[in-house]
Amino acid sequence: MQKKMQPKQKKMNSNLFRHQPLLKQKTVADYLRQAREGDGRSIEIIAAKLKIRASYLAALEKGKYTELPSPVYVKNYLRLYTKELHLPWERIEPLYTQEIRVVGSSHAPTDRVLPRSTGTRVATRARAQQRRASAAEVSAHHQEALLIPRILKLGLFGVVVLVIVLYFAWGVIRLVTPPELTIVQPAQDVLVTKSTITIEGQTVPEVSAAINGQSVAVDPNGHFTEEVTLHPGLNTIQISVKSKLSRERVEIRNILYNDKQEENK
Q1: Would residue 214 count as lying in a domain?
Q2: How many CA atoms lie within 13 A of 196 on its CB side?
Q3: Model-level pTM?
Q4: What is the pLDDT of residues 210-258, one digit of tens each?
Q5: Fewest CB within 10 A of the end CB: N or C in the chain?
């Protein structure tokens, strides 16, 4: 009985310890590459738009962080690239942090003393020049990124200043412009047979009015009325209005008084 069960037990053990393939977790490089390819753009086109070296973007798509500058610059490049590809940064950032920990000290620059041979000195100098060039490129990119909001702030400030200047200019023009004046009666030059005539006009409130140099009262609505005595013949009546700072506006009415017609009556 025991011998018959041994093959079955061996088969169960074989199934229990059968090698199961692990599910592949997508890396930052996978997300970047798939998003770019789905967008249909090349690395060179995006690099030119972001003003980042195409080799840096290619290294990000391959997960080769050791071929990039310091992690501070890499994170900035990655953030810009992620935004351009419309990927969620809140998903990419923790994944990048996890990957960069694995890379560890291999990404950080080393300060070990190298042999002072001619070839080593040349190689060290070349690496130093490359690091300076990378730092200069990142600095220029950062300056440009900071320059855009600064330009927007200056533009907004300029608009506000322009509005204030135009407002005060409009106020000054309004103050110095002569007030409006409408002569209601007489509406035009007339011939009269009476020795008096009523002058009626309309202007704006808070101005001074005068008829032939004599002040007349203006009510709060800008209306004024005054009776003027005429002498026989042609009478020139000058009606003027003026505010404190404005120039004077003048209207003229010529009134011909025929006293003989009044006597005949």
Answers
A1: yes
A2: 4
A3: 0.37
A4: 999 999 999 999 999 999 999 898 899 999 999 888 889 999 999 988 8
A5: N
Q: Helices marked H in 85-210 — which ranges?
A: 89-103, 118-176
Domains of the chain: total: 1
The answer to the question of residue 235 being in a domain is: yes
Task: Report the CATH number at residue 224.
Answer: 2.60.40.10
End-to-end CA distance of the chain: 159
252 lies in some domain:
yes
pLDDT the model gives residue 206: 86
DSSP assignment string, 62-97: HT-GGGSS-HHHHHHHHHHHHHHTT--HHHHHHHHH
Q: Side by side, which strands form the sheet with 223-229? A: 181-185, 196-203, 223-229
Q: Which helix (H) or strand (E) segment is 249 a member of? A: strand 249-257
Please, are residues 258 and 191 in contact by the beta-carbon 8 Å criterion? yes
> Would you say residue 211 lies in a domain?
yes
Q: How far apart are CA 81 and CA 60, in angstroms?
A: 9
Rg (the chain; Cα; Å): 46
* Structure confidence by residue, pLDDT tens digits, 77-107: 999 999 999 999 999 999 999 888 887 644 4
For the stretch 63-77, pLDDT in tens is 888 888 877 788 899
Q: Which residue in 32, 41, 24 sits closest to 91, CA to CA?
A: 32
Length of the chain: 265
Cβ(199)–Cβ(225) below 8 Å: yes
Give the residue from 26, 137, 43 showing the smallest Cα distance to 81: 43
3-class state of residue 208 by DSSP: strand
Task: Determine the Cα angle at 23 with ends 21 and 24, to 5°.
Answer: 115
Are residues 162 and 230 in contact, defined by beta-carbon separation less than 8 angstroms?
Answer: no
- Give the Cα separation of 15 and 255 in Å (integer): 125
